[in-house]
Amino acid sequence: MNCSKIRVALVAGGSRGIGRGIALALAESGLRVGLTYKTNRDLAEQVVTCINGKCAHQAAAVPLPLKAAAVPMDVENRSSIRKALTEVKRCLGPIDILVNNAAISQEKPFDSITDEDWDHMMAINLRGPFACCQEALPDMIRKGWGRIINISSIGGQWGGFNQVHYAAAKAGLINLTRSLARIYSACGITVNAVAPGLVDTDMAAAELHTPFGQEKVRNIPIGRISTVEEVAAAVVFLASEAAGSMSGQTLNVNGGMYFG
Questions:
Q1: Would you call 166 a catalytic residue per the annotation?
Q2: Would you state the pLDDT for residue 57?
Q3: Distance in angstroms (rounded) separating the CA atoms of residues 48 and 246
Q4: Residue 190: pLDDT above 60?
Q5: Could you give the strand order of the β-sheet that contains 8-12, starting from the edge strand earlier in sequence?
Q6: Is the four-CA dihedral 53, 136, 71, 125 of positive or negative sign?
């Protein structure tokens, strides 16, 4: 690939779980990848080390050109977002592809969700992606090309039982996706969402160990939960030239749990 054609992706929340899988898959597809973390610096650096071709089993290899970088970012803090994007741009180049994956979840009955729980959930899972989009869009507009991919959830499509605030934030993220697609698609920037169902990550582990979560698994049409790699493959497609006519869409990766 011509170096001048290499794209740069930023994966918010790329140190573990789905974000880690997305970062690795995007790098494998030939992109330079910046990934953010809030507290898991060691895990983020492990992902970067593997992408940059200096894993433990390759310790004697000649160092390769920088393909990835990890930067701290607090999605609740606008100045932290700006600083992270500036650092990725310095290390790898202007950001062409933004993947909003940083998120939290919380299992809690509706009548015990506090105002603080609600505000914290919205700040990370909805306001954070909104701010990241605002900060990343100017460079995409200048170049006339960009990809924004928001990681939503099946919860944002069919509602939440013990995660009402989580489901509400993820539903808002889907509508943010549609709104931005209406505004920016004509600028060469596609905006799409990926909505996973149950995925084999530590974030989902708490739910999967509840009777309600176990019942969900039993009712998945494909008979199993999805893998991180399957979600990452959907993101790689949406980030590609081949997905240039897709915008404002929500791509479901849920094993047939929801058809909407």
A1: yes
A2: 44
A3: 30
A4: yes
A5: 68-72, 32-37, 8-12, 97-100, 146-151, 189-196, 250-253
A6: negative
What letter does residue 29 receive in the DSSP assignment? T
pLDDT in tens, 205-224: 776 777 877 787 888 999 89
Q: How far apart are the C-alpha atoms of 35 and 141, rounded to whole Å?
A: 22
Indicate which residue of 37, 166, 184, 258 is catalytic: 166
End-to-end Cα, the chain, rounded Å: 38
Q: In whole angstroms, what is the distance from residue 48 CA to residue 59 CA?
A: 14
How far is the CA of 15 from the CAs of 26, 176, 190, in angstroms? 14, 24, 25
Q: For residue 148, what is the enclosing H or E element? A: strand 146-151
The amino acid present at 30, given as its one-letter code, is: G
Query: Within a 10 A sphere around the Cβ of 9, how many other Cβ atoms?
Result: 28
Q: What is the pLDDT of residue 67?
A: 94
